[in-house]
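Hi V.,

Quick status before I head out on leave. The structure for the redesign project is tokenized and pasted below; the design run finished overnight.
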């Protein structure tokens, strides 16, 4: 009769070779994801941006395709969030031009929600290697403020509220935090709304040939974006310094 033998802790613990194989699989998955993303960018993303940039042609195409045109635009917004190389502002302006400010804003928000959820879950599944597929580790390391759990919600809300901040990078890095998906979606949706509204308002004004109002909207948006970029750089520079001070203080306490 065979006896049940309980594995020792050493046998139960993952072996170095197993860890290397797991890391290799993650890196291969991230590399595959990057190759797919690059292919989507070059063969779909760039032509898509050129297409929506011709606003008159884009609106005519939307009008001729009805509900399918709207579903196609939702797909474009999702793709823009997932493939971080694709800029979002041209799509938001084109949405205002083709659908009007209200419907354009709703479509942009819905597409952003779907795409953001996909990115968040992908990163939760594959971790840092997937983020590194799009952004270098040095740039991710500079975002230490995402580790400050006490200020995390406010910091994310502020950075998504201000135009000009790297929202694509933040979307990918958020999956590395302990933030729940539901809370992430609420915070970023509320914070993105003003920026999307200004873009769709400007696009709607262009569609109605109200060029003066469109110029004012875009000028104000550019001004706020420049201010937002400066604010983000100050936050990015200040948080690592604060973290270094805290680590130094902890080291002093341990040595005392």
């Amino acid at each position: 009769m065979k006896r049940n033998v309980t594995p020792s802790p050493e046998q139960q613990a993952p072996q170095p070779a197993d860890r290397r194989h797991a890391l290799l699989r993650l890196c291969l998955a991230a590399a595959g994801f990057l190759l797919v993303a690059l292919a989507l960018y070059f063969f779909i993303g760039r032509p898509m941006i050129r297409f929506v940039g011709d606003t008159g042609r884009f609106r005519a195409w939307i009008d001729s395709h009805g509900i399918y045109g709207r579903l196609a635009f939702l797909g474009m917004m999702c793709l823009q969030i997932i493939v971080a190389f694709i800029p979002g502002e041209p799509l938001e302006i084109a949405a205002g031009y083709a659908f009007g400010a209200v419907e354009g804003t709703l479509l942009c928000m819905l597409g952003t929600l779907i795409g953001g959820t996909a990115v968040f879950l992908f990163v939760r599944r594959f971790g840092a290697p997937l983020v590194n597929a799009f952004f270098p580790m040095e740039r991710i390391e500079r975002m230490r403020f995402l580790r400050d759990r006490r200020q995390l919600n406010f910091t994310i809300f502020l950075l998504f509220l201000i135009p000009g901040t790297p929202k694509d990078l933040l979307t990918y890095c958020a999956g590395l935090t302990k933030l729940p998906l539901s809370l992430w979606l609420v915070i970023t949706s509320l914070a993105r709304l003003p920026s999307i509204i200004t873009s769709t308002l400007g696009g709607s004004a262009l569609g109605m040939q109200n060029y003066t109002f469109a110029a004012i909207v875009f000028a104000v948006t550019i001004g706020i974006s420049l201010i937002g970029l400066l604010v983000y750089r100050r936050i990015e520079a200040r948080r690592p310094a604060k973290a270094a001070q805290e680590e130094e203080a902890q080291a002093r306490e341990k040595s005392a």
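Above is the designed sequence. The mean pLDDT is 80.

G. will cover questions while I'm gone.

Best,
W.
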